[in-house]
């Protein structure tokens, strides 16, 4: 019920960001998993036998959904490609694996479930072992990739809000790791005993319930933090602003004109306070204009100019005697890590790959 409650909160939230839908999907799948445990651990399976294990293949979507949830928070402009559907292949294979059970008549399912809920449990056969191990390893891999992305994100030249968001996302990912570790320990117990004791499910059920309730408590008690971190809603703070849209566009035009005429982004010490002083505009106003009009933070806006400068110089023969990193530093970047991340985000490839590509075209 808490899962349903949280899902409803997220659905009615006035945001069209992809991160919201990824989070809703995660909550719904975890809630269905809890409902599945409830059906099996009670007499409900006698009434609705065809619901038993129906959501089991969905567990193979938790990893991909979590990864893309993290990506959508870190990169709000994330664009999904057709190739991203390849992440659903394990889920499809899981459905195929479960089809023989799903196709069983009601009375046979009830008989099997009754046998499973007996004190000696269900025999831990080879098929079940492979399925369980594959599901846990699959999820671990995706959580590990998500953690890798989070910890490799540049720490310099980022806003306080983004830093806070990064900290919470890391905690979220670590929490997911702990959840799958508990599942893995339960799997080891199954392997040791040779059968599935239904009582061992309780620990996994507790972890699911705890995670959902924790999110609900955070959503209620720290609604602002929840919206900013888990839903990536950063424009709400500007709703009370009295600035007209025409005024915002005028300020944006001033900012862009200054950036293109004076090219201050070439200085690696350019900061929001410095730009504020140069333009004679308050810092909060510049942030508001960039967030509302472009959906970007100051450093996203700044690094985009630097990226375009690097890209332009890489194509210019005048700079061919310089290394890629030297061009990056001359274009305003002061951190190799940040440069590589920004370039790959915009170009979809590393700087070296881009240089090879344009060299090949020129050749």
UniProtKB/TrEMBL annotation:
- Identify the stretch annotated as signal peptide in this record: none
Q: Which Gene3D superfamilies match?
A: Homeodomain-like (1.10.10.60)
Iron-sulfur recorded as keyword: no
According to the entry, every stretch annotated as the HTH araC/xylS-type domain falls at 253-357
What stretches pass through the bilayer?
21-39, 51-70, 82-103, 130-151, 172-190, 202-220
**Is this entry keyworded Transcription?**
yes
Superkingdom of origin organism = Bacteria
Output the InterPro entries linked to this UniProt entry. Homeodomain-like_sf, HTH_AraC, Tscrpt_reg_AraC-type_HTH
Q: Mind telling me which SMART domains this protein's record contains?
A: HTH_ARAC
SUPFAM superfamilies, from UniProt?
A: Homeodomain-like
Keywords carried by this UniProt record: DNA-binding, Membrane, Transcription, Transcription regulation, Transmembrane, Transmembrane helix
Q: Can you name one GO molecular function term for this protein?
A: sequence-specific DNA binding
**Under what name is this protein listed?**
Helix-turn-helix domain-containing protein
